[in-house]
């Protein structure tokens, strides 16, 4: 599991939630208006007991039916006003807050697209998914509800207490006694709930990851009869999550119990005391009615504090989780710069010997590799001349895929530099770099859209059907025209409705459709049969005539496509030459090419 978990203990919920301000700022006026409306609505409710008092001490005591009806009318109007005001509040916040949520989600998505591959290597996709969905929903709910109501209820409680004290200060003090233990409970609850809420949200992320993997890997799961063990793993994660949720429920039950019971006891005591006072003639019946109905009207604001705090805590956790992803530096940021190595101040004009693709003393180690391990690529010096195609050969795990990923800057070199026509790739904008360099990977990734759109992804916008057909022809992917709807046929999720070789050929077509200056192919023909491979090679040879290409290869037939071959071994380019030269002069190469064992 990636190191995405933070310790929440020392972090204050308020500080986390303050980070939401930039998103909330645009809607602050609305939120504030809504809060004021809610405060007015809530205090309207508190006027009702005062009308009751007037009713009991006035018309009821005087046996005046017309006065009673009038009082009832007042009560009805107050009730309607309260309801309408709360309705207005809801109307005020609903739309702006869904915009806040949508904006944050869009930002997260945009950020995830810009984060380097190294980040995605580290983070489980389910963790990202749950941050973009559940966590943001929690945030919207927090802004809509607890944020306003902690304020509204706080004000209501203060106003209510003031009214009660004004009615009868002794009864008022009796009702206030539980405030101290209730506050203490809230503080303790906050700390405990924060930890459990974080655990629950992380576990949702783990669960999402497992579901996603087993859906994407359904062929392996079925093929190896692993559905039982997958189900067991799922059950275990569910049981963990259930345990955490029950823990949350227990904490809520405790605070709820305290928050409900203590005030009820106090109200009961006040009732007894008040009745005695009324019997002694020290207090009017109307005042007691007003006092008690105020106390009862405050029950909801007080009781709701428990779950409002719980929701706020969850929202604070969600904010932390959201910003953990957002705080990661995107490509091109400080983390995108090479760690060591001299930087040329300005790109020099291309001199002939600099033209082409050049690796200069390139070292690379994965950021998450063991600290004492040697770099995977120790000293790569390689020059691929313009228009030349270079095959890259090496044992499995020697770092061929890694080396190819350095060219489009999917990973950053640890030191040394890579130049295209003499220009350091770190000195050119990424868009320009990725326009110049086209890539195809051994594992071809297709998106759930049409075949044509998948291929045209590799070309500038507006590339026409001619180029599409040409690219499909080069990659020997004419099968696309025979699909039910031709190139407009939609491929299933990840293109799994196609064969591995078909997917590879579409990925290859995508690499060549934009007529790139530089082509980097990581074993793009591995899933093709020998005849198709030969046909693709013949077509590729024509393309490669004016393209500078680096091609990872395994079979002699693919190697023969290239002008020269480089052997990657022990983190270095151990030898460069033609296939025949290396075959004669390099034992390791001869062994790799001998076919005695599958080098992959
Ligand atoms: N994202 C990664 N993080 C850490 N190590 C990696 C990562 N990807 C590959 N490696 C390691 O780098 C080594 C070389 O991998 P790779 O470049 O894929 O080799 P090849 O393509 O030559 O078979 C392997 O030992 C692999 O474990
Ligand atoms: Mg590889």
TrEMBL record:
<dbReference type="GO" id="GO:0005886">
    <property type="term" value="C:plasma membrane"/>
</dbReference>
<feature type="domain" description="ABC transporter">
    <location>
        <begin position="357"/>
        <end position="595"/>
    </location>
</feature>
<dbReference type="InterPro" id="IPR039421">
    <property type="entry name" value="Type_1_exporter"/>
</dbReference>
<keyword id="KW-0472">Membrane</keyword>
<feature type="domain" description="ABC transmembrane type-1">
    <location>
        <begin position="32"/>
        <end position="314"/>
    </location>
</feature>
<keyword id="KW-0813">Transport</keyword>
<feature type="transmembrane region" description="Helical">
    <location>
        <begin position="31"/>
        <end position="56"/>
    </location>
</feature>
<keyword id="KW-0067">ATP-binding</keyword>
<protein>
    <submittedName>
        <fullName>ABC transporter ATP-binding protein</fullName>
    </submittedName>
</protein>
<keyword id="KW-0547">Nucleotide-binding</keyword>
<dbReference type="Pfam" id="PF00005">
    <property type="entry name" value="ABC_tran"/>
</dbReference>
<feature type="transmembrane region" description="Helical">
    <location>
        <begin position="169"/>
        <end position="189"/>
    </location>
</feature>
<dbReference type="InterPro" id="IPR027417">
    <property type="entry name" value="P-loop_NTPase"/>
</dbReference>
<dbReference type="GO" id="GO:0016887">
    <property type="term" value="F:ATP hydrolysis activity"/>
</dbReference>
<feature type="transmembrane region" description="Helical">
    <location>
        <begin position="141"/>
        <end position="163"/>
    </location>
</feature>
<keyword id="KW-1133">Transmembrane helix</keyword>
<dbReference type="InterPro" id="IPR036640">
    <property type="entry name" value="ABC1_TM_sf"/>
</dbReference>
<dbReference type="InterPro" id="IPR003593">
    <property type="entry name" value="AAA+_ATPase"/>
</dbReference>
<dbReference type="InterPro" id="IPR003439">
    <property type="entry name" value="ABC_transporter-like_ATP-bd"/>
</dbReference>
<feature type="transmembrane region" description="Helical">
    <location>
        <begin position="68"/>
        <end position="88"/>
    </location>
</feature>
<feature type="transmembrane region" description="Helical">
    <location>
        <begin position="251"/>
        <end position="277"/>
    </location>
</feature>
<feature type="region of interest" description="Disordered">
    <location>
        <begin position="328"/>
        <end position="347"/>
    </location>
</feature>
<dbReference type="GO" id="GO:0015421">
    <property type="term" value="F:ABC-type oligopeptide transporter activity"/>
</dbReference>
<dbReference type="GO" id="GO:0005524">
    <property type="term" value="F:ATP binding"/>
</dbReference>
<dbReference type="Pfam" id="PF00664">
    <property type="entry name" value="ABC_membrane"/>
</dbReference>
<dbReference type="InterPro" id="IPR011527">
    <property type="entry name" value="ABC1_TM_dom"/>
</dbReference>
<keyword id="KW-1003">Cell membrane</keyword>
<dbReference type="InterPro" id="IPR017871">
    <property type="entry name" value="ABC_transporter-like_CS"/>
</dbReference>
<keyword id="KW-0812">Transmembrane</keyword>
